[in-house]
Amino acid sequence: MNSKKREPIAICTWAFEKANAAAGAALSQGMSALDAAIAGVAVEEENIKNTTVGKGGAPDREGNVTLDACVMDPTGNCGAVACVEGYTNVAALSKKVMTDTPHVMLAGQGAEEFAAKKGFTRDRLLTDDSAAAYKEWLKTSEYKPIINIENHDTIGMLCMDINGDIAGACTTSGLSYKMKGRVGDSPIIGAGLFTDNEVGGAAATGMGEEIMKSVGSFLIVELMRNGMSPQDACKEAVMRTIRKNPDYKDFQVAYIAMNKRGETGSYCIHPGFTMMEYKQGDNRRIPSNHYISKE
Ligand code: ASP
């Protein structure tokens, strides 16, 4: 830890303005980077209008809402949960896995039993709106997990606190109408999220399968360790996917990153992705550079 106080920073995927502002305000009041990131993403986990994170998230193709999340702290410790039903605050639950178990990840029923034991409140995550949308989807059962940003909008958040320490959280309901049991990149440390307090952090959103194949967030942090700016590192991670997968036009992959100096960046395949950045009390929406110039 540094003795000199730093200007806190919060960044997150997409235009989750309130979530980022909440994290920024918490950091300004001296909250740790990890707790601020968890408090920030909780705003979207609890937002029932958001159909891609937490309560109100779109279900899988059997009608069950299953959530994935992970967190990583400045010491390099991390926790994650996958395929959790009936609990909204899965980023906070991931922290409990990190602090109160000898493990990094709990999945499914085991994670749910652990949540109950830790006093998390059980809830019905399928809202009337998402149940109605699901009923509509059942008419065709068409599964097109392509670039439609409304089908996948994970919140990944990176925070730097007043001590200059970096941590992050990532939480999602995954791809809408995914296969039962499907888990994406978001709870996978290194894929959906990675932080290293000596270097910086990165978080991902988009087609989880592609992000997992390149371990994108870890890649970005390692590129920054070797001297790349957050912006260039995000671009290089997207380019790895583009070079390897000729079908890259059919899906979105997007990254955000922050380094230890507080510089930030983002990059994605398709236009439409934005990042929120809280710096010096100002919460700004920053459109991301993208590989494909026009749809
Ligand atoms: N990456 C998430 C997943 O594949 C979805 C998203 O970010 O939109 O589960």
Descriptive report:
The protein is an alpha+beta fold. The protein is built from eight helices and 13 strands. It has helices at residues 17-28, 33-45, 90-100, 108-117, 128-138, 208-214, 216-225, 230-244, and strands spanning 9-13, 67-72, 78-84, 105-107, 155-160, 166-172, 193-196, 200-206, 253-259, 264-268, 274-279, 282-287, 289-290. A hairpin with a 5-residue loop joins strand 2 and strand 3. Helix 1 (17-28) packs antiparallel against helix 2 (33-45) and helix 7 (216-225) packs across helix 8 (230-244). The termini are far apart. Bound molecules: aspartic acid (ASP). Aspartic acid binds at residues 52, 152-154, 172, 174-175, 184-186, 205-208.
Q: What is the general shape?
A: globular
Q: Which bin fits the share of residues in helices?
A: 25-40%
Taken in chain order, the helices and strands follow as EHHEEHEHHEEEEHHHEEEEE
Largest sheet at a glance? 8 strands, mixed
Main-sheet strand order equals 4-3-2-6-5-1-11-12
How many helical stretches? Answer: 8
Mean pLDDT: 94
Main structural class? alpha+beta
Count the strands?
Answer: 13
What is the beta-strand fraction?
Answer: 15-25%
Distinct small molecules: aspartic acid
Poorly predicted runs are: none
User: Rounded to an integer, what's the Rg over CA atoms?
Assistant: 17 Å
Note the gap between the termini: 46 Å
